[in-house]
Prior knowledge:
elongated; single chain; mainly alpha; membrane; 2 domains; about 0% strand
Amino acid sequence: MGEEKNPAEQRERLRQNELKNSPMNALGDGMRQGNLADLVGGVSWKTTGVLILVLIGALVLGAVFDWY
């Protein structure tokens, strides 16, 4: 027979169904819950290194030419 689930499991199941059925809501949740580790985890270490070098270069150029 069907097992009764505790309230926490029911809430989680409802939350998952809501996220699955509402793409805009899921997008908003992803924007709020994302962090740098998620961003960097999706690219290679070489790409991450190049991005860091570009950011440092932009800061140096900004300091030299007083752009900020």
